[in-house]
Protein: 3-deoxy-7-phosphoheptulonate synthase
Organism: Epidermidibacterium keratini
Amino acid sequence: MVIVMSPGSSAEAIDEVVNAITDAGGEAFVSAGVARTIIGVVGATDVLESLEARDLTQHPSVAEVLRVTSPYKLVSKENHTQTSTVMVGNAPIGPSSVTLIAGPCAVETPAQTLEAAQMAVQAGATILRGGAFKPRTSPYAFQGLGAAGLEILADVGREVGLPIVTEVVDARDVDIVAEHADMLQIGTRNMQNFALLQAAGAAGKPVLLKRGLTATYDEWLMAAEYIAQRGNLDIVLCERGIRTYEPSVRNTLDVTAVPVMHDLSHLPIIIDPSHAAGRRDLVLPLARAGLGAGADGLIVDVHPHPEQALCDGPQALVGEAMDELAQLMATLPALLGRTQNAR
Amino acid sequence: MVIVMSPGSSAEAIDEVVNAITDAGGEAFVSAGVARTIIGVVGATDVLESLEARDLTQHPSVAEVLRVTSPYKLVSKENHTQTSTVMVGNAPIGPSSVTLIAGPCAVETPAQTLEAAQMAVQAGATILRGGAFKPRTSPYAFQGLGAAGLEILADVGREVGLPIVTEVVDARDVDIVAEHADMLQIGTRNMQNFALLQAAGAAGKPVLLKRGLTATYDEWLMAAEYIAQRGNLDIVLCERGIRTYEPSVRNTLDVTAVPVMHDLSHLPIIIDPSHAAGRRDLVLPLARAGLGAGADGLIVDVHPHPEQALCDGPQALVGEAMDELAQLMATLPALLGRTQNAR
Amino acid sequence: MVIVMSPGSSAEAIDEVVNAITDAGGEAFVSAGVARTIIGVVGATDVLESLEARDLTQHPSVAEVLRVTSPYKLVSKENHTQTSTVMVGNAPIGPSSVTLIAGPCAVETPAQTLEAAQMAVQAGATILRGGAFKPRTSPYAFQGLGAAGLEILADVGREVGLPIVTEVVDARDVDIVAEHADMLQIGTRNMQNFALLQAAGAAGKPVLLKRGLTATYDEWLMAAEYIAQRGNLDIVLCERGIRTYEPSVRNTLDVTAVPVMHDLSHLPIIIDPSHAAGRRDLVLPLARAGLGAGADGLIVDVHPHPEQALCDGPQALVGEAMDELAQLMATLPALLGRTQNAR
Amino acid sequence: MVIVMSPGSSAEAIDEVVNAITDAGGEAFVSAGVARTIIGVVGATDVLESLEARDLTQHPSVAEVLRVTSPYKLVSKENHTQTSTVMVGNAPIGPSSVTLIAGPCAVETPAQTLEAAQMAVQAGATILRGGAFKPRTSPYAFQGLGAAGLEILADVGREVGLPIVTEVVDARDVDIVAEHADMLQIGTRNMQNFALLQAAGAAGKPVLLKRGLTATYDEWLMAAEYIAQRGNLDIVLCERGIRTYEPSVRNTLDVTAVPVMHDLSHLPIIIDPSHAAGRRDLVLPLARAGLGAGADGLIVDVHPHPEQALCDGPQALVGEAMDELAQLMATLPALLGRTQNAR
Ligand SMILES: C=C(OP(=O)(O)O)C(=O)O
Ligand SMILES: C=C(OP(=O)(O)O)C(=O)O
Ligand SMILES: C=C(OP(=O)(O)O)C(=O)O
Ligand SMILES: C=C(OP(=O)(O)O)C(=O)O
C-alpha cells in the first residue's frame, strides 16, 4: 500500500498518517520527494485490511491511497506514469535531457582528478564521477584512496563547478560519503547488499543504482525498492553490462533494459558504456546505441593518462575520443528531441 | 594461406594456382567474388611451407599471397580492411546504406504474404523476408509451408519488385531454396550445422548468417568461414539476440556485436530486433539502438493480422508502428551519413 | 494424442488406425517398440476433436487413447512410468544396469582404434564409441575420417565383440552411418538440427541424443520428441555439460538433469564427463557425481596416446586413470543396486 | 609474499616479523592457524623486493618465505598441499569426515527451531544451521527475526548439543552474530561484499563462504582471500548452485567445483543441495552427486512443517526424506573412505 500526500502537506499531517499506520501494526516509509511526499506501507495482509477499513482517504492531506500489485511499489510506473527527473546538485537526469556524467574511474591524485574533470567539462558533462572506495575482485588490487579521495573529488568538483557522484561500498561509510557527494553510487557487486541499499536510502542524497552482473529486471527494481522504502525516490538506474560468454569484451551492454525499465518504472535510466565493454574503442558506439534505445544519460570514464591509471585504464577515453564524445553531446540530444543540459 | 588473384584473372590462371596447391598436398577453396577471386588454402604446416617455398607470387595472375593469423581467414578484416557490400538482387547491404529487410515471419497464404510485402515496401524495405521452412522447437508447432511457401514468396517478391530472403534448414533443400530465393538465411539453431553451412556456401547465392543463441564472436565467424571456404564471400551477419536470464524478453540484443564484428571482419552486419525481444513494443527502440551502434541494416517482422499469425505474432509490427518504422527509415540513414536505399 | 496399440497388433490393424487418422486430416507417426506399437497423432484442435468423436478405443486392437498434456508426448513419463531399457546390440542401457560406453573421441587409425577399444573392454565397457564424422568449430580442424572411419570402427567393434555408437552430423549420412553403427549419436551442436533428428528417428537404430550447450530440459525433450515421432522410442539422453562462465573447464556437468529427466521422461540418461570438463583429472570425480545422481551409464573418452590425439587429447583417459575407471565399474553398480553389465 | 612461521613461534617473534614488513612499507596479515602462524604480506613490487633483500629467512622463527604466484595466496594449495580441517565447535569439516549441517532455512519460533534441530540430530547432523538475518530479494518478504533469532538458535543449539552456523548480512552485525554463533555464514548475494568479508575475517570464528550466483572459481577464492587476509584461515567453501537458463529448478548445482576447488585450494568444500535446486525431491540425488564428486559435507534445510515455512518451504526435507538422509549419512561416509562424524 502506498499513500500519496497532497502537495504541501504539513509535517503534522504526515505524522498523523504515519501514526495511523503504526497503530494498525504496519511500518511506514516516508519518501519526501520534490513535489510531494509518498508513504509506503509494509505489513501483513490483515494490517493492510485494517488500514483499508479505516479509509485514510478521509484524511484531508491524503491525495490517494493505492494498492500496488507489482512486486515493486514505490518505483513502479503503475501510479507514476511519467519518468521522474532526479536533480543532482543543479543537474537534472530525466526525460527532457541527455545527461553526461564523466570523470576518472578512480581518484588517484588531485592533479589527475582535476585534469580528468576538465576533460569532462569540455565534453559537456554536468556531473563529475570518481571512485574513492573501489570494490576490487582481488584484495591485492588498489582499493581507492578512501576518505582522502572523497576530499580530492569534492575539491575538484567545486573547482570546476560540477556536482559529484561517487561509490559507497560499506554501510558504515554512507555518512561520510553523503557529506561530500551530491549523489551516492551503489556498484554492481553490491546491488543485493540490502543493508547498504537501506543505508543509502536513508542518507538524503540521490542514488545511482548499478545493475548486478546477472540480475534480472525484477531483482534490480526490487533493489531500488529497498532504497525507496527508506524515503528516497531520487534513484537513477544504471545499466553497465551483464555477464555473457563473450571473452573479447568484459561485459555485454543490455540496451533492452532501457525501454523495458522505462515501461516498468518511473526511474530514469542511464548507461555506462565504459564499464560495460572495458574497451575504449567501444565506448562511443555503445553510447550511441544506448541513447538510440532511449537512455536518459551516460556515465563515462575519462583519464588524462590512461596508460598510468591505477584502475581500468583500457576503457578510459582520452584525446580524439573526447572530441568525438563532445561532438555527440553537442548534436545528439537535439536530434533525440531532448535539450542538452547547458551548464 | 589465402591467395588473392588479380582482377580479371582467367579460369586457366585460377586452375594453375589450384593445381599448384593440390600438388603440394593442400586443399584449395575458390571464392569468385564480384571484383576478384580469392583462393583459400587449407593444409598442414609442411604443406603451407612447401607452397611458400614455391612462391606463388611469381605467377602473373596472383596479386598477393597472405598468411592469415586469425582463426578465420577469408572473413577476417586482416586483409580486407573495408566492410564489404553484399548485393541481394539489386539491393546492397554494406557500409554506405541502411538496408531494411521486412516481411512476415512465416509465409502462410498468398494474400497474407502480399499484404505483408506491401507493408514492407511502404516502410522502405528493399528486400522481402518470409519463412517457408520454419525451425520450431516443438514438432507439434507449425513447420512452414515448405516448397509451396517458397513459390508464394517468390511470386509476391516479383509482384512488389523486391528480392527475397528465406531460411533453409536442411542441406538437402539448399538447391530448391536457392532456385527461388535471392539470399539464403541460416537460422540461429543451425549456426553450427556445418553440413548446411557448406551446402549454402556452394549454392551461389548470398547468405544471411544468424548468430547462435549463445555463440561467441569467434564461433560465429568460424561458422561464416565454413561458408566462405566453399567459395562464397557474400555473407551478411545477423545479430538476433542472445540467451540471458531475463524472463520478460525472449532474448537480449547484443549491440556490442556490431562494432566488434566491424572490427574483426569485413562482412556487413544487420540486426533483427523482432526475434531478439519477441515483443512488438521493443522493436523500434532496439532498431534505433542497433543503428546507433553502426549496424548496416535491419530485418523486421511485419504481419497484416498479427493476432492470427501462425508464428511469432506478438513481435510482428502492424499499424502505427509501421509508420514509425517508415519514419525512421526516411530520416535516420541520412543522419548516420548513409544513403537510404532508394528502390 | 497418442494411441497405444495392444501387444501383438497386426500390421493391418495398425494401418486401419493410421488411415482413420489421416482421413480426419491428422498426421500419424508409428513407433514400433519392442513390446508394443505407439501411434502419435499430430493435427489441429479440430482434427483431434473429430478423432475423439470417432472414438478409436472401439477398435479391437487399440489398448488406449491418450490426450497428453505435456509438450512432449511420446517421450513423456506421463503414460510410461518406468524408465525404459534401450538395447544397443546386446548391451542394455536402462534402470537395472550401469552401462559404460568408452572409446576414442575420433577414429584416427585402425591401430589406435583397436588399442582404445581394448582399453575400453578392460575397463568394463559394453559399447564402443568413436567419431568418424567430427563436428568442429573451425573448418581448419580435423573433421574425422568420414566413411573410412566408420569402417575402421565397425571392424574393431567386431574384433573386440562390442556394439558401436558413432556421431552423424548430416541427414544425408544417416543411411551409411546406420549401416555400420549399432547406435547413432546426435551431437550437442545438432540438438536442434530438426532434419537430422527426423532422419535419425527413421533409421531403425537407437539414438544417443546429447544435450545442446545451453538447452533447457524442455527443449531437449522436444528434440527427443522429433526423433520419437518418426517411430523410434529407443532414445538415450546424454548430459555432456552446459556452457557457464567458468573458464577453467570447458563446460559444466549439470547433474540435476539426471533426476529431473528421470522425473519427466521414461528415457534413460547417461553422462559424458569427458566432453563436459575437457580435463582428464576431472573425469572420474564427475563420473562418480553423475552415478550418484542416478545416471544409467557413462560415455568416456580413452586414447592410448592422448598427447598425439587429433581431437580432445587432454580429456582422454589413459594409464592409471583407466584402472580407476575399471575399479569404479567393478564396484559402484552393485553399491547402487544395479547389476554391472556383464559382457 | 607469504611468511610461514615455525610451529610454536612466540608472539614476540611474530611481532618482529610484522615490524620488519611494516618498516618496509608493506602490510602484514597474521593468520594464526592451529599448527602454525602464516603472515601474508601485501605491498607494491618495490616493497616486496626490499623485503626480499632483507631476507627474512634469516630470522630464527621464520620457516619459509614464499612468493606465491596464484592470484590468491593464503587460500591457495600451492604452499598447503593437504585439505585443511576446520573445527566448528567440536565438529570437524575436512578430508576425513562427511559433515552434515542441517536445520531450518529461517529461525521462526523456538518450537519450530527445536523440532528442526531434533530432526537434524536424528539424521546425523553435527552442526545446526538456521537463518536469523535473511537476505531477501524483496523488501516486502520476511527478513528474519534478527537478534531475537540468534538467541533462539543459540539456545536450541545448546539444548541439542550442536554448534551453530548462521548468516551475517551486514558488517555492523558481525560482532553480535559472532557472539552467538560458532561459524559465520556469508551468503551468495554477499560473496563480493568486501567490507563484510573483511569484518567476518576479523571476528575470530570460522566462516562458511557461499559461492556467488555466477561467480567464477577465481572470484570465489579471491573472496575467500579477503577473509584470510584478516588472519582467519578457518574458511569452508559452499557450492550452492549457479544461475543457468533452466526454469524448472532454482539454480544448478555445479559439482565440478568440488574437485577443482580441492585442486586449487586447501579449504574444505561442502554443498548445499537445498538452496541449489529449491526442490525437496532433488535434495537427496544432489547430495549423493556432491559426495560422489568428493565434497567434505552437506548443508541441508529441514523443517517440521514446510507448508507453513516463512522461507523456502518447498526445499525443506521432512518425513521420509529425513529417513533417507539419515540412511545416507549412516552408510555413505564409510563407502567413501571417510569416518562419519560421531557426535
Ligand atoms: C566500479 C564501477 O562500476 P561497476 O560497479 O558497474 O563495476 C564504477 O563505476 O567505478
Ligand atoms: C526463425 C528466425 O530467426 P532465428 O533463427 O533468429 O530464430 C527467422 O528469422 O524467421
Ligand atoms: C563431439 C562429441 O560430443 P559433443 O557433441 O557432446 O560435443 C563427441 O562425443 O564426440
Ligand atoms: C540464503 C541462504 O543461502 P544462499 O546465500 O546460498 O542463497 C541460506 O543458506 O539460508
